[in-house]
Amino acid sequence: MRLFAHELRAQQQLFWRNREAAFFSFLFPIILLVLLGSVYGDNEIDGVRGSTYLLAGLIGYGVAATAFASLAITLVVRREAGLLKRVRGTPLSPAIYLAAVIGSMVIVIALQAVAQVLIGRFLLNADWPASPASFVATLVMGAASFAALGLAVTTVVRTAEGSSAVVNALYLPMAFISGSFFSPRDMPRFLEVISEALPLTYLLRLIRSTFIEGELLSSSPGAIAAVLVWGIFGLAVALRMFRWEPREGMSGA
Amino acid sequence: MSAIEVFGLRKSYGPREVLHGVSFAVEVGEVFALLGPNGAGKTTTVEILEGYRSRDDGEVRVLGRDPARAGRDFRARIGIVLQSSAVYPLLTVRETLDLFAGYYPRPRDPGEVIELVGLREKADARVRTLSGGQLRRLDLALALVGDPELIFLDEPTTGFDPAARRQAWETIRDLRSLGKSILLTTHYMEEAQRLSDRIAILADGRIATTGSPRELLSEQGVVEIRFRRNGEDVVMTTTDPTRVLHEITSEALAEGVELEGIEVHPRTLEDVYLELTREQAEV
After folding, report:
1. Which residues of B touch A93 (CB under 8 A)?
2. Mutation for B interface: A6, A12, A86, most B CBs within 10 A
3. pLDDT tens, position by position, B128-164
4. Looking at residues B244-272, what average pLDDT do you find?
């Protein structure tokens, strides 16, 4: 526990000192909320006040941006630079290291969600979360599943240079198709079919039902199962294939 | 007692075998240099000993443990300087040392280690502002901060200027006098010759020879004589230079020819090394 706190502190320091990454994963979802909320906030979307609807969607987008995209890019860059290999040569347990890196992302997600809820409420006149405890539980579960998928995706990215390209090509279309920025109800049929397979679709469904409709998390077992199945799939891939060494590792003699 | 024992070590990457039965031992408290050209298998050998890579065959004992199966307590007793690996560029030198010191059960004082490697004036600088040589010194500091018994140094002074190299050598000698065991790989013959108690030359996945620097030199003939005679370059090596010189010079005097540019010098380790590794270079 002491080691986890020690590592978590360093990971937080590293996150906030990396201005570009902190901007894209922390600030960007907040900026999107302000922009989209200012334009569509007073409209009605799916029978709900626009700002409340968008707030719920952009909180889900923030979870994916940080737990999935930022985590995956951070780990690929560190792996290819040889940093993970260095850590592996110390007595620090790999599980504690990864837990601290993910824990640091969870702190970022929590701060981001708090900022979004406050901005939504006081700037855009959105509602408070209708079922706060279930909403928080949804975010925790979503962050865990997307972090597992973030670990999994590091195994298919080969270079540090390619990491943002690959990761963004996966999660930006996903955020769009799953309906982070608008109601998925108006989507053409083929996108709807794709969206039914994506984990973010179900996370957004859970966030909206707990945040907007005041449902308990336990009232949507199907969506919970979909998010968890994706998370377990990610974890299984990561456990089998996660690499600590850069790719060139095999050639040097 | 041996800090490292390697017997019959084999390793292949796909169909290509890179280590064909490597054997050597590093005694506790000695500096042992593993020399060899690029591609000879130095890094593969060292990374097997560090626990990073698996082996295909052979016996390996590091601090009495099998590194392939050893855990955290083993890694607390070794220090590693990898050939190339990054540090967090956004932390300062002091923050980096504090972070890594926290991983070990009985670390050295980070301030003292910073002092030891000569980075005191850079202690509060972000790592990304360090020069190549300063980064190498930070590598060394990170290998020392856990106060290890055995230290692996994979080309620790590559990219150092001569002054920094001398300083690193001093540090390595200090570590030796503290009773640490050190396994060093290097391209620099002078480094191996000056620092190490014993040297193994690794060529083409095999140990070509092992011994103290003095033994390696005497094994191969100690003195080299070079001159030009009738426009032809002649190089001779001998363990008996007085007699040989007398013979060639009397012969030259009798025939009335001049031995142009005659030089007599002790063979360096570099000569031995080049001879032993030449075959591989020619393949």
Report:
1. 72
2. A86
3. 999 888 898 899 999 999 999 999 998 888 777 888 8
4. 85
The ipTM estimated for the assembled molecules is 0.89
Closest-CA residue of B relative to A83 is B86
Question: Per residue in A56-112, pLDDT tens?
Answer: 999 999 999 999 999 999 999 999 999 999 999 999 999 999 999 999 999 999 999
Chain B hits for A89, CB-CB cut-off 8 Å, are 50-52, 75, 78, 80, 82
Q: Is A17 on the interface with B (CB under 8 A)?
A: yes
| Per-residue pLDDT at A250 exceeds 50 | no
DSSP class per residue in chain A: -HHHHHHHHHHHHHHHH-HHHHIIIIIHHHHHHHHHHHHHTTSEETTEEHHHHHHHHHHHHHHIIIIIIIHHHHHHHHHHHTHHHHHHTSSS-HHHHHHHHHHHHHHHHHHHHHHHHHHHHHHH-PPPPSSHHHHHHHHHHHHHHHHHHHHHHHTT---HHHHHHHHHHHHHHHHHHHTSSS-GGGS-HHHHHHHTT-HHHHHHHHHHHHHTS---GGG-HHHHHHHHHHHHHHHHHHHHH---S-GGGGT--
Report yes or no: B222 and B272 within 8 Å, Cβ to Cβ.
no
- What is the structure's pLDDT at A248? 66
Residues in chain A: 253
CB-CB under 8 Å, B142 with A14: no
DSSP code for B212? -
* CA within 13 Å, CB half, A139: 27
Cβ distance B43 to B83 under 8 Å?
A: yes
Chain B within 8 Å of A245 (Cβ-Cβ)?
A: yes
What is the tens place of the pLDDT at every residue in B190-227? 888 889 999 999 988 999 889 998 888 776 567 888 89
Chain A, nearest residue to B148 by Cα? A90
CB contact A1 to B (< 8 Å): no
Distance CA(A17)–CA(A34), nearest Å, equals 24
- Does B87 sit within 8 Å of A86, measured CB to CB? yes
Q: Which of A12, A68, A105 is nearest to A180 (CA)?
A: A68
Give the relative orientation of helices B93-101 and A2-17 as an angle to the nearest 10 degrees.
160
Two tokens, residue A14: 């590293």
Q: Return residues 134-193 of B near A (CB < 8 Å).
A: 142, 146
Amino acid identity, residue A151?
L
The per-residue pLDDT for B281 is: 53
